[in-house]
Specification:
Blueprint (H helix, E strand, L loop, with lengths): L13 H4 L4 H6 L4 H20 L4 H26 L13 H26 L4 H20 L2 H7 L2 H7 L1
Organism: Olea europaea subsp. europaea
GO biological process, one term: response to bacterium
InterPro entries: Reticulon, Reticulon-like
Length: about 160
């Protein structure tokens, strides 16, 4: 490696400073097709949600309506033209998966309620300060931007999980 690969003549390269993985490759445009693809998808999402005024719920509803209409018309025309019906797999959620999901949700809700109880009874002042500051920060950021922009540009879920 030449000296041009080093940042401020340091021992580590910029790629190593950025973590050296896929994220560093994307930031340094080493995987040009993937980086350009991410930028195009981000631009398309911005156009759909900000310029056109769609919300995530209205876009999902429109896509599902289009999908159901196409499948319905395909099935009706297949019956008239003696063609095969659309290949739709039989989807179902097993009881085992439902029980595992319920157990996981119950565990996390109980942990959250335990923390809430400790804060409400004054047992954990440090956690109270963390939660209060996090909620204040979320409130300030939320008043400046809308939810979709906040979701696109930050690691909002990391803030909530770390509490």
């Amino acid at each position: 490696m030449g000296s041009s690969d080093r940042l401020f003549s340091r021992q580590r390269t910029v790629h190593q400073i950025l973590g050296g993985g896929l994220a560093a490759d994307l930031m340094l445009w080493r995987r040009k097709n993937l980086t350009a693809g991410i930028l195009v998808v981000t631009l398309a999402a911005w156009v759909v949600f900000e310029i056109s005024g769609y919300t995530l719920l209205s876009l999902s509803s429109s896509v599902l309506l289009l999908l159901f209409t196409v499948l319905f018309l395909w099935a009706k025309s297949a019956a008239i033209l003696n063609r095969p019906s659309p290949p739709i797999p039989h989807l179902h959620i097993s009881e085992e998966v439902t029980n595992e999901a319920a157990t996981l949700i119950r565990y996390h809700v109980n942990a959250l309620l335990s923390v809430f109880e400790d804060i409400a009874l004054g047992r954990d002042s440090e956690m109270f300060i963390k939660v209060a500051l996090s909620l204040l920060l979320i409130s300030v950021i939320g008043s400046v931007t809308d939810f979709l922009t906040l979701g696109y540009t930050s690691k909002f879920h990391g803030l909530v999980i770390s509490i």
